[in-house]
Design goal:
The protein is an alpha/beta fold and 459 residues long. It has 14 helices and 17 strands. Strands 5-6-7-8-9-10-11-12 form an eight-stranded parallel sheet. A seven-stranded mixed sheet has the order 3-2-1-4-13-16-17. Strands 14-15 form a two-stranded antiparallel sheet. Strand 2 and strand 3 (30-36) form a beta hairpin. Helix 2 runs parallel beside helix 3. The N and C termini lie far apart (52 Å). 57% of the residues are buried.
Length: 459
């Protein structure tokens, strides 16, 4: 009689090594064993040959509720399961209900639990009018990190947090043991750039990048890391499009500060001069997609170990919000959940970057970052059996025909990936089999243990 409920054998990709051939054994909802060589018996066994077996990805940045009536957790988690993503970390800037207090955290968690097909974690933020008063209560409600912005996208839904208040927020977050993540664009510089670009009469695909040159991003990063250094708070830049930005983060780490930066998959795949002419508004993101030379610099930063997380910043805007001829009239952000893992694997293989970085940057590090690594992030005995299987079958990505997204478009449409996601397991249950996904309602709220954080009166 077998000791395992499930055994998968193939090429097992771990953060520090690759087992080829290797196997993963599952008992109940957890990883029970990982080994090399001949796989043991199991009640259910899959010999996958040359397939890649990776830990399920943790997408560190999703926006499931940015457009009312559009996506929601039922669709975002469907895309996740089809893309090998087993945990969504959702941002707090929801249309009509910015998550900035314990009641809103609880309400969003209930909604996600009704709809999600995979597990989820939640960011919190603040209402600038309330200041830091509700940070601790959100921690107790289960948020895994906090998000702020140096740029004001919208005065209530996505507000700018001015430097003095940002420092107060960092100081309050530091007492919780969590991390402060920040959108990194200098507000004054961006607004001046937009005004200059409009005055020059440029409104086509070039306009977005021209209005947000590299300095707008780097000035904000310096502010974020200096604020972290002054308050003792782990400071995280949630999307850096510039190789120099990762050098900046590394310099702060070398000085002993907790300073990290996250790379979005569209920065690693797309390039302004190659892709923006065809994408137009569908490629608009903040910060912008940069040049091909900058893209290759980002891959060098991955290989050097300076990138902490790779995520999507997924948002499924309807096409009417992304199809204006005037770039300034388009919403910012792109969908990416279905493409995250295969796109990263494709880019790494093309550049000789070890696939161990996939396990590290999309599973191990995110689990540590959000303090959920007691249960998530690794093919390690005792952790949740979250597993992604990719088979060596080239696919031409086409969101319109996949059936697993609400919008039917993607900036990756037409790109060829050498591997496809063939199956996804979440806590030992197969939630994607290559064509179908699990029903809504099986997702679980992944939250840091309260023993990790300090109560305000103990700080």
């Amino acid at each position: 009689m077998s000791d395992f409920d499930l055994v998968l054998s193939g090429i097992v990709v771990l953060p520090d090594r690759i087992l080829a051939p290797g196997w993963v054994g599952v008992r109940g909802e957890q990883i029970a064993a990982v080994g090399e060589g001949v796989a043991p018996a199991a009640r259910e066994r899959h010999d996958l040959g040359r397939a890649l077996i990776l830990p399920g990805a943790i997408d560190a940045q999703t926006h499931s509720l940015s457009q009312k009536g559009q996506e929601g957790f039922a669709w975002s988690s469907r895309s996740a399961a089809a893309g090998g993503v087993t945990t969504l970390v959702d941002m707090p800037y929801d249309e009509g209900a910015v998550v900035s207090n314990a009641a809103q955290v609880a309400a969003k968690a209930r909604e996600a639990q009704r709809e999600a097909r995979v597990d989820f974690a939640l960011y919190g933020t603040i209402d600038p009018e309330e200041g830091v008063a509700r940070i601790q209560e959100q921690v107790e409600a289960g948020v895994c990190a906090f998000k702020f912005s140096t740029f004001g996208t919208h005065p209530t839904r996505f507000p700018r947090i001015p430097p003095p208040l940002l420092a107060d927020c960092f100081a309050a977050v530091a007492r919780t043991g969590l991390t402060a993540g920040v959108h990194n664009e200098d507000d004054e510089s961006v607004r001046a750039g937009i005004a200059r670009t409009k005055a020059a009469g440029i409104t086509d695909w070039r306009a977005h990048g021209l209005s947000r040159p590299p300095l707008t991003e780097l000035l904000a990063m310096a502010q974020i890391y200096e604020t972290g250094a002054a308050t003792g708070c782990p400071a995280h830049v949630v999307h850096c499009s510039l190789a120099r930005g990762y050098d900046l983060a590394a310099s702060y780490r070398a000085q002993g500060f907790a300073a990290t930066a996250e790379c979005l998959i569209h920065y690693l795949v797309l390039a302004e001069e190659e892709d923006m002419p065809r994408l137009g508004g569908r490629g608009k993101a903040n910060p912008p997609i940069r040049s091909a030379a900058e893209r290759e610099g980002l891959w060098r930063q991955v290989a050097a170990g300076n990138v902490w997380l790779v995520s999507t910043d997924h948002v499924s805007w309807s096409l009417d919000r992304k199809s204006h001829a005037d770039m300034f009239d388009n919403a910012s952000g792109v969908p990416g959940l279905e493409a995250l893992v295969p796109a990263f694997v494709a880019g790494a293989l093309a550049r000789g970057v070890p696939l161990t970085w996939a396990a590290r940057l999309m599973a191990q590090n995110p689990a540590r970052h959000f303090r959920i690594d007691r249960v998530k992030g690794a093919l390690t005995p005792g952790r949740d059996a979250d597993i992604c299987v990719l088979t060596p079958e080239p696919i031409v990505f086409d969101a319109a025909t996949s059936g697993h997204n609400v919008v039917g478009w993607s900036p990756y449409d037409g790109l060829t990936f050498p591997y496809r996601v063939a199956a996804t397991w979440s806590r030992g249950t197969r939630v994607f089999d290559g064509t179908t996904v699990a029903d809504p309602g099986r997702g679980r709220f992944a939250r840091p243990p309260l023993t990790h954080v300090l109560a305000e009166d103990e700080a």
